Amino acid sequence: MKPHTPIIVPSLLSSAVLAFSTLALAEGIPDREVYFGQTHSHTSWSIDAYLIGNHQVDPEQTYQYSLGMPVKHPMGVEVQLKGRPLDFHGVTDHSEYVGVIALANDPKSDFSKQPIAQKLIAKTPEDFNRVFKWIAGSLSHPIKELIDPKVAGNIWQQNIAIADKYYKPGKFTTFVAYEWTSAPNNQNMHRNIFFRDSKKVPDLPFTALDSDKPEDLWGWMDDQRKKGNEVLAISHNGNLSNGLMFPVDVDDRGRPIDAAWAETRMRNESLTEIHQVKGTSETHPELSPTDEFANYEIMSFLLGIDNSTSKLNGSYIRQAWQNGMALQEARGYNPYKMGVVGASDSHNGVIPYSQSNNFGSHGFTDSTPAARISGKENSGMVALQTSTSGLAGVWAEENTRESIFDAMKRKEVYGTSGVRIPVRLFGGWGFDSSVWNEKDWVQTAYAKGVPMGGDLPAKPGKAAPSFVVWAVKDADDGNLDRIQIIKGWTKNGQTFEKIYDVVWSGDRQPDQATGNVPSVGSTVDVSKATYTNTIGATELKKVWVDPDFDPAQHAFYYARVLQIPTPRWSTYDAAKLQVPPPADVSATVQERAWTSPIWYTPNAEDSKSIAGGKTIDQLKTEGAKALTNEQLQTYVVGKTIKVRNTVTGQTFEIVYGTDGQRLVTSVDGKPPAQGEYLNMLHAGQFGVPAKYEIKDGHLLTTLGGTPFEATVFEQNGKYVAARSNEFGYANYEVEVVK
Description:
Oligomer: single chain
Shape: globular
Number of helices: 17
Number of domains: 3
Radius of gyration: 26 Å
Low-confidence stretches: 1-29
């Protein structure tokens, strides 16, 4: 095992870092250590980066920056990584026409002497617009001279050579990597592609000019693997995909998703970004209304389109994890058993991770404090809403390409919002608090359970699963507020989630009704953009047992670690300008880390212990008939309909008005709480009327930009309904209120 520079924690943490220092010192280097690195960044070689002002920070300077060296920002000011150097980095320039604009404008390059290069010369704003329009207009009909292997292949070989130059096993790991940049109709479908061994990479990368279909990318990756070239893909910005990133019905070509599709995706795409500059893709407040911390650095737009929004459904990883389990239960396959990383997507080559040291991520569009907090929109993106860069945390045996790649492949990784919080999560069947008394509790946890990214082993008895979770603060940032475990599960096509506060700082007591732990408070002085670490904890750890475990239900568990409130970057910028913080964004943030999940799958015996729900196919076999448009009009319009959810047992009354509006009026015979979201026939929020229409034999309601259908069946004078997003189950008993 090669040596690794230990994480140095100031003495003020003292006993708070006992667990971590014990790992590193008392028993020697543990089986796996945490390495922090970057899996998504752009340099002047990406065509869009060059056109927004990055004319000087190339891949070589980007690696120098990650090593802690001072580097000139594209706008000319010298910047330096705040804190410790990174452990690893893979530069992921857009593979489509990579490097051609930067090299065309470099008179020292061989490419600048070619005739085609003259069309790429850009020195004025008018030139940039001309080149951009020419390049953008060619994506469906690529420019032959620019994809010629003599051009593209030469640039690709330079990229490989630079990665190899800065690879120092045991000290700093670089990867040969690139971004496959597919964006059909401005909908983000991008993937970052990582190679395990630079000596086995192909002569040319597979780009979106070859195909913008992810299925074709995966096919190419499978072919590479057959040639002995290990490769993986990391999807990013599901939040900007308009619902395309995590489909459940059909693929990009309109073909039904099946087991082969699911297996191919999981074989090639084991990870997704949970946070980066252009927003967080964990979840959304409208998808997770009971999650008080869901509204973290949310962005929703379509690439290049001002005043646009992205559909919610199919765009966030927590929902994808839930839907993946539902697909597993209903159809026998799960395409979304993936882990998470945090990343950047900065186009400057130099990357801001700290809220107090943000210098922008997109060239001249956000290079000054005034530009960043102006609220100005550029191609759909508002700089004020962007985040500082995220980081990937990887638990690996050593700081080498092989070890870090293998950790990413097995999903023993996690994402952070840019802070370096060491986080452990293990799951098993017999953990209790005595694990902390072990001489090497990590060895015990590995021996008795599985780490993040894994599957719980077969259930040995009737006990609920137990989880070991541990975190230590970033030595250069805020203290810790709490650790939560987010659980998701499924039953008869319906998906559910619950957020558990499992350990927290101080002597706060959970609310007896909700179980939620009160706020940690705040030390932030917004006017000065300062805070103190006089609240919170330096270390948190817990052995937690699921109190609501049902062995018959598929489930996943992941940890979320929250820091105490600190000033947001926009508050720091406002203080520099001596103006009030922008009102359109929060003045503070609670930075965080998200682990990859641990999954539970019922065995055959446990699966049989629960009564299966009625399916649409069963109804049809039994002679049930779907109501027509005319029958639906007669049955529901102008009526109050009583709906019973047979999975949860809840009963709702819904008024379907003659004006095309429907409204929930009661839950279990009582008015629900204002703002309560409801899992009923359509889903929705109490007190907020929603439009509905009758179309093609369905009750149709559009929520979060996505249409949902409810089909009503009649069988022997009784009525049963099925929702289009419940994977073929008919979970609702329906009757008209007399």
